[in-house]
Write a structure and sequence with these properties.
Helices cover about 0% and strands about 45% of the residues. By secondary structure, it is mainly β. The strands form two sheets. Strands 2, 4, 5, 6, 9, 10 and 11 form a seven-stranded mixed beta sheet that branches. A four-stranded antiparallel beta sheet has the order 1-3-8-7, with no helix packed on it. It starts with a strand and ends with a strand.
Length: about 130
């Protein structure tokens, strides 16, 4: 069983930057699509970003375009990052790393992602 472990969350102020990391216990990112979702208190889990294989263009939620960057360590198929800039208080949430099969690229539905980490909390104060 491959596990995903997120890290990098914490308390920040509006406008700050944070980089989240997701480390897999196995090399699953060589044959799956890693993504980030987030879930704010009392709300549904929402898509943030997904990245394809090697040079494939990442896909972002409209709300984070231009501020967030998802990347992968191609030399090490066990690590994926989410760089978040200019954070807003409304982006306070638990951020989850997820993975799905290549056939699901383009999907932003959490139901299409079969592997999940436990999440890391990001709190943005105003």
């Amino acid at each position: 069983q491959v596990h995903l472990v997120e890290s990098g969350g914490g308390f920040v102020q509006a406008g700050d930057s944070v980089r989240l990391s997701c480390v897999a216990s196995g090399r699953i990112f060589s044959d799956t699509l890693p993504a980030w979702f987030r879930q704010a208190p009392g709300k549904e889990r929402e898509f943030v970003a997904v990245i394809g294989w090697r040079d494939a263009t990442p896909l972002y939620a409209d709300s984070v375009k231009g501020r967030f960057t998802i990347s992968r360590d191609d030399a090490n198929d066990t690590v994926v990052y989410l760089q978040m800039n200019n954070l807003k208080p409304t982006e306070t949430a638990r951020y989850y790393c997820a993975a799905t099969s290549f056939s699901k690229f383009g999907s932003t539905s959490a139901r299409d992602f079969g592997r999940w980490g436990q999440g890391t909390r990001v709190t943005v104060s105003s």
